[in-house]
């Protein structure tokens, strides 16, 4: 997929190079409080959200969409288990990256205590999963569905949400996490959406956008803000390999530093350290990585 830089040079989307995407994602996790702020949410707020699901059943169906290596999924499943001890769980994992799926399987194999969970591995995208679910004509419903940092990669986030919401059983919950509209990401995308964002498979969507969409459809939801930060100091050191990798992650452009026009590069770097996006503290540039959580119930 190509998008055009200011000087007409084609920019390639990072998502087409899974190896580099995964490396940049790992580095992002190291440089940010991304997973820590999710863990805080999972331990403080999620237990209450999960307490009402299942409607007294002894078996729960869970679907994770875009699970990555599963660290966050397992953390949520653990809270689910604490709230519903003695209940067995069928966990459908939907993840197109074979590398990530492999990492997830390795993680599970190290935890024999998870034997109350049956894992089903679906190496596919959300829309492929939707297609195969519809073809199977199953009447199965889900009690808990989550899509964490995933909706950027679908063509029509609204349609994806509607489909997964339609799978919810009585008292079921759909949990969405994306960057907040007020984060540095939101600011970056508002200014450079056309230069950076790949319209086909990766989009600049925030919880602000999803809330407007749900409001317009009259779908009710609960939402939470998760403060989070990312240290992007290395992006400002010329030739720094890790800085370049982080810059790829921030722009979602493959080899941004080598392929973007000088104008685009200067503009993006300037905005990244602008107070709209970042604050400077003890010589570090700290990017606003705030996330938003949206929780939707079964449709009425
Ligand atoms: N939920 C994990 C991973 C987030 S990264 C976490 O928060 O740590 C986004 C994940 O979505 C990646 O693992 C990527 O492979 C996956 N993904 C990309 N396109 C997707 C699609 N169309 N459908 C489902 N998952 C997708």
Sum up the structure in keywords.
300 residues, alpha/beta, Rossmann fold, seven-stranded mixed beta sheet, three-stranded antiparallel beta sheet, 12 helices, 12 strands, 23% strand, globular, disordered N terminus, binds S-adenosyl-L-homocysteine
Note down, in words, how this protein is organized.
- The protein has one domain (14-48, 59-297): 3-Layer(aba) Sandwich (Rossmann fold).
- It is 43% helix and 23% strand.
- The chain has helices spanning 18-31, 34-44, 46-51, 71-83, 98-109, 126-136, 157-166, 184-196, 207-217, 241-251, 256-259, 262-273; strands at 2-4, 10-12, 59-65, 88-94, 117-122, 142-148, 168-179, 221-226, 229-231, 278-281, 284-288, 291-297.
- The protein has a 7-stranded mixed sheet with strand order 5-4-3-6-7-12-8.
- Helix 2 runs parallel beside helix 4.
- The relative contact order is 0.17.
- S-adenosyl-L-homocysteine (SAH) is lined by residues 25, 65-68, 72, 94-97, 100, 125-126, 148-150, 153-154.
- S-adenosyl-L-homocysteine binds at residues 25, 65-68, 72, 94-97, 100, 125-126, 148-150, 153-154.
- Substrate binds at residues 34, 289.
- This is Histamine N-methyltransferase.
Which runs of at least 5 residues are low in confidence (pLDDT < 50)? 1-8
* Tally of DSSP β-strands: 12
The N- to C-terminal Cα distance equals: 39 Å
**Major sheet: arrangement of strands:** 5-4-3-6-7-12-8
Rounded to an integer, what's the Rg over CA atoms? 19 Å
- What profile does the largest beta sheet have? 7 strands, mixed
CATH superfamily: Vaccinia Virus protein VP39
CATH structural fold name: Rossmann fold
Helix- and strand-based class?
Answer: alpha/beta
Beta-strand portion reads 15-25%
Total domains: 1
- Globally, the shape reads globular
């Amino acid at each position: 997929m190509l998008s055009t830089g200011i000087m007409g040079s084609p920019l390639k989307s990072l998502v087409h190079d899974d190896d580099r995407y995964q490396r940049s994602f790992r580095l992002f996790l190291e440089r940010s409080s991304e997973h820590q702020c999710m863990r805080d949410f999972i331990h403080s707020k999620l237990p209450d959200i999960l307490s009402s699901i299942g409607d007294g059943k002894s078996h729960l169906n869970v679907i994770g969409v875009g699970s990555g290596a599963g660290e966050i999924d397992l953390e949520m499943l653990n809270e689910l288990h604490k709230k519903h001890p003695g209940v067995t769980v069928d966990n459908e994992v939907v993840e197109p990256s074979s590398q990530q799926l492999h990492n997830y399987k390795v993680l599970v194999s190290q935890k024999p205590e998870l034997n109350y969970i049956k894992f089903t591995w679906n190496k596919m995208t959300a829309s492929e999963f939707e297609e195969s679910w519809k073809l199977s004509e199953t009447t199965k419903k889900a009690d808990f569905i989550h899509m964490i940092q995933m909706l950027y990669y679908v063509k029509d986030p609204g349609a994806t949400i509607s489909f997964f919401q339609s799978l919810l059983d009585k008292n079921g919950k759909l949990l969405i996490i994306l960057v907040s509209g007020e984060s540095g990401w939101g600011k970056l995308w508002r200014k450079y959406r056309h230069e950076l964002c790949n319209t086909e498979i990766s989009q600049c969507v925030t919880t602000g956008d999803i809330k407007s969409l749900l409001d317009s459809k009259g779908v009710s939801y609960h939402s939470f803000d998760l403060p989070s930060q990312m240290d992007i100091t290395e992006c400002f050191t010329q030739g720094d390999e890790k800085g370049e990798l982080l810059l790829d992650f921030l722009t979602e452009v493959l080899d941004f530093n080598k392929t973007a026009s000088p104008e685009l590069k200067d503009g993006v770097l300037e905005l990244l350290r602008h107070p709209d996006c970042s604050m400077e503290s003890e010589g570090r540039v700290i990017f606003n990585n705030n996330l938003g959580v949206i929780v939707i119930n079964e449709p009425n």
